[in-house]
Design goal:
Number of domains: 2
Strand order of the largest sheet: 1-11-10-9-7-8
CATH class of the largest domain: Alpha Beta
Strand content: 15-25%
Number of helices: 5
Helix content: 10-25%
Shape: elongated
Largest sheet: 6 strands, mixed
Radius of gyration: 23 Å
CATH topology of the largest domain: Severin
Length: 272
């Protein structure tokens, strides 16, 4: 789910997911992913990374604008030793820092800037992204340069790199780009869907015995919301549970939280 998606689209996606799950027998565990805050599992399906592009698909919800510009210079920040989180950041010197790895994709050359505090594993994964950009955006025909944080104009690649930013200047210590927000203390709460309405379940301890096979429930854990659907729950009530989870995220200002949908009897190990 893209980070700027409209509320109507998010709600429709939740309903269609329930309909698709019902058509497939209701056995699948469903995950709601948000752009910029994807789970490691989701990212692992895309090699070497996901790089969101501006635009979209024309539909009743939006008019897609086609970008017909020539190759634009773009700056990306990369994080991750196993799966890579890639995000485009403003093409400005203030976006750089000592802790991360940045990739500058220009018309004729791709630069990998290695922050002085970045790890060897991070640098290796970022190099895979560089190769991906070279193959995808340049048909494999462009130069690649490596820039080490702290090396100034004496290095040819470094001189060319910093020249694109208007010259060298000290970098800020605090990272410009944050993947995750601050952790907060959160008390889990169980919510039941009754006749289309959400009703909080009063309980001191969460147990499986609280769940009724004829109803759907939301378990709000802060960073993630579980939607548990009893095997005898009507399809319309399952749809309502999905849209209620989206509403709960908006009301609680938790737009980047995950939603995980589970059908009774097909919960994955370690879930509810």
């Amino acid at each position: 789910m893209i980070s700027i998606i409209g509320l109507d689209e998010a709600g429709t996606a939740a309903i269609k997911t329930v309909e698709l799950d019902a058509a497939l027998g209701g056995r699948a565990v469903q995950y709601r992913e948000v752009q910029g805050n994807e789970t490691e599992k989701f990212l692992s399906y895309f090699k070497p990374c996901i790089i969101p592009e501006e635009g979209g698909v024309a539909s009743g919800f939006r008019h897609a604008e086609v970008n017909e510009r020539e190759h634009a210079t773009r700056l990306f920040v990369c994080r991750g030793k196993h799966t890579v989180h890639v995000k485009e950041v403003p093409f400005a010197r203030s976006s750089l820092n000592h802790d991360d790895i940045f990739i500058l994709d220009t018309n004729s050359k791709i630069f990998q800037f290695n922050g002085s505090n970045s790890s060897i594993q991070d640098r290796a994964k970022a190099l895979e992204v560089v190769q991906y950009l070279k193959d995808t955006n340049h048909e494999g025909k462009c130069d690649v340069g490596a820039v080490e944080d702290g090396k100034l104009m004496a290095d040819a690649d470094a001189g060319e790199f910093w020249g694109l930013f208007g010259g060298f200047a000290p970098l800020p210590r605090k990272p410009f780009f944050e993947l995750n927000g601050k952790d907060t203390i959160f008390s889990s709460k169980l919510i039941c869907i009754i006749k289309g309405q959400t009703v909080q379940v009063d309980c001191d301890v969460l147990t499986r015995e609280l769940l009724d096979s004829t109803r759907s429930y939301l378990l709000d854990c802060g960073s993630e919301i579980y939607v548990w659907m009893g095997r005898e729950t009507p399809l319309e009530e399952r749809k309502r549970a999905g849209s209620a989870a989206e509403e709960l995220l908006r009301e609680g200002n938790q737009p980047k939280s995950y939603i995980i949908r589970l059908m009774e009897g097909f919960e994955s190990h370690g879930r509810i």
